[in-house]
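Sequence in, structure out. Go.
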Amino acid sequence: MNDVNKIPVTRLELLEEIAKLTRLITPFRQDIQSIASAHVVLSQACEAAVYDFDVRLKRIEALLLPPTEE
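Output:
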């Protein structure tokens, strides 16, 4: 009986489940790695864009705000 809701309890059952999952994931391994790499690149690009925006905003604020006298 192949019950999907059955929780593996023995070491052998756990190993069998791991083997099943490995067989399911293996064809998509390259895709998963590509997505993970793209995520890292996109995250870094977003961080750079936010930093660039902050720098530009500070420059604009400096131009718009009157100089402070100390």
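Check: The two ends are 82 Å apart (CA to CA). Residues 11-64 form one domain.
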